[in-house]
Amino acid sequence: MALSTTIKGIQDIMRKDAGVDGDAQRLSQLVWMLFLKVFDDHEEQKELLEDGYKSPIPARLRWRAWAKNAEGITGDELADFINNDLFKALKELPISGKNAAISAVVRGVFEDAFNYMKSGTLIRQVINKLNELDFNRAADRHEFGDVYEKLLSDLQNAGNAGEFYTPRAVTQFIVDQVDPKLGETILDPACGTGGFLTCAIEHVRKKYVKSAKDEDKLQASIHGVEKKPLPHLLCVTNMMFHGIEIPSNIRHDNTLARPLRDYGPKDRVDVIITNPPFGGMEEDGIENNFPATFRTRETADLFLVLIMTLLKPGGRAALVLPDGTLFGEGIKTRIKEKLLDEFNLHTVVRLPKGVFAPYTSIKTNLLFFTKGEPTKHVWFYEHPYPPGAKSYSKSKPLRIDEFAVEKKWWAKRKESDQAWKVSIDDIKTRDYNLDIKNPRAVDDGPGDADELLNQYLDATSEAAKVRDQLRDELARALEVAGS
Fold it and tell me: Which CATH superfamily hosts domain 3-136?
């Protein structure tokens, strides 16, 4: 049976359970179970290769003890074991001794995990399907990497969970152009489900890893931080699928919560690749961790300041930012001034609307810069829709092969209908406004008539609803006043 069919079967079983509501909860439920299954398969390998290997998980809680036997506990007994024994013990797993690092990973995964399923019988059916998989088989592991990527992409349609997933084409293009190398420390300070990090792992492994020693060096070089529990759980599991044996460098934390002045040379890294949250505000007080010049509650702006701080001299960064950062004034202007004075912002790739749909329709940009020398000029490249397309959608997303033209242009840059160069003097004259339009762009007019009509009808419908609500509220107020 194809692995994707197995996963679909698991999701169908979960849909029957009264406790699981929506794609995000189904994925969260699936992933903590997958984590324990993958971990147990991984431990089987370690027991064969390492004399005297001892699991950090107590014997009764290991997957093989309660889940592996298809005729094992089920029903209320299984639900009670998971809720009142398994979760409680793993959330409090001691972190000490030889296995402290991996104990911390297990405990970190379960600190914010939750068993949504109510039916122990349905849980047993899910477990038995998971036991059809063997993550020690290279074929299963490789195929599941693709299936897992598909599961994560489904997050884009799971309400606010879409903020944790960056389209694979974007992560792949950024990693290809930044070209992280073996031995370089690689960080994503807002790593979500781990898309940038998995691309970096595959890139370095394919291009540079030639021996077991090289692999050890790669394993130690991958670092990520994620604030929210669901994507952190998804990321840790994703790292294991991509061969990171002990993903202890994937921390559940908020990188913005540490005062900027506390970061020293030992915290600095060679490469930062990320899609920080944008359009949101940080909690009260977070901005006080930053110098007064850059204090704001806009998350994307704070991350840009943090990235500038965390790069080593000569270090390279690439990140996704919304248009608002490019044209924003005030504190945004001061941040951009620092960026252009102390870093070489050599490339801005301007993406069209719809790349992150349906999570957001905001236009975004890919910024590439190096620390250590000021910007002399910035190259802009306007990424076009593919021929015949007017937007992206779930069924027609941005594809990596669309970036072939940028990759060809990258090494031998020339101005064209898509590419233009702007000097730092021109940017300063514009008061550091980087929202610089393509000088060769053709004015397409007001837009597609059908699309504009639909937008107008939606707007008038919303206005009618608001008008009716106000009328009803006014009528009720008059009733109360007259009685």
Answer: N6 adenine-specific DNA methyltransferase, N-terminal domain (1.20.1260.30)
CATH of span 150-429? 3.40.50.150
Domain edges within the chain: 3-136, 150-429, 447-477
292/259 Cα distance (integer angstroms):
12
- 377-382/419-423 β-pairing: antiparallel
Phi first, then psi: give them for residue 421, nearest 5 degrees: -115, 140
- Interval 280-332: pLDDT, tens: 677 778 888 998 889 888 889 999 999 999 999 999 999 999 998 899 889 99
How buried is residue 325: exposed, middle or buried, by Cβ count under 10 Å (0-12/13-18/19+)? buried
| Per-residue pLDDT reduced to its tens digit, 393-420 | 777 889 999 999 999 999 999 999 999 9
Q: Is the predicted pLDDT of residue 3 greater than 60, yes or no?
A: yes
Phi, psi (5° rounding) for residue 385? -65, 155
Question: How would you write the chain as a 3-class SS string?
Answer: CCHHHHHHHHHHHHHCCCCCCHHHHHHHHHHHHHHHHHHHHHHHHHHHHCCCCCCCCCHHHCHHHHCCCCCCCCHHHHHHHHHHHHHHHHHCCCCCCCCHHHHHHHHHHHHCCCCCCCCHHHHHHHHHHHCCCCCCCHHHHHHHHHHHHHHHHHHHHCHHHHHHCCCHHHHHHHHHHHCCCCCCCEEECCCCCCHHHHHHHHHHHHHCCCCHHHHHHHHHHEEEEECCHHHHHHHHHHHHHCCCCCCCCEEECCHHHCCHHHCCHHHCEEEEEECCCCCCECCCCHHHHCCHHHCCCEHHHHHHHHHHHHEEEEEEEEEEEEHHHHHCCCHHHHHHHHHHHHEEEEEEEECCCCCCCCCCCCCEEEEEEEECCCCCEEEEEECCCCCCCCCCCCCCCCCHHHHHHHHHHHHCCCCCCCEEEEEHHHHHHCCCCCCCCCCCCCCCCCCCHHHHHHHHHHHHHHHHHHHHHHHHHHHHHHHHHHC
CATH topology of 3-136 equal to that of 150-429?
no
Kindly report the number of other CB atoms within 10 A of residue 247's CB atom.
24
CB 355 within 8 A of CB 398: yes
Beta strands at 222-226 and 186-188: parallel, antiparallel or unpaired = parallel
**pTM for the complete prediction?**
0.84
Measured distance CA(432)–CA(58) in Å, rounded:
58
